[in-house]
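Design job #97: recover the sequence.
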């Protein structure tokens, strides 16, 4: 079982099937929206 976690806010984004327990880091949509607003 694998988990995808947002590296900005540490919320769980999704789970996926895997042979090992894995944690992958990505960014969720709410953090992408907030980040693009800060750049303006």
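Job complete. Output follows.
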């Amino acid at each position: 079982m694998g988990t995808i976690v947002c590296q900005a806010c540490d919320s769980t984004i999704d789970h996926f099937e895997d042979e090992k327990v894995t944690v992958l880091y990505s960014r969720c949509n709410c953090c992408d929206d907030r980040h693009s607003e800060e750049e303006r």
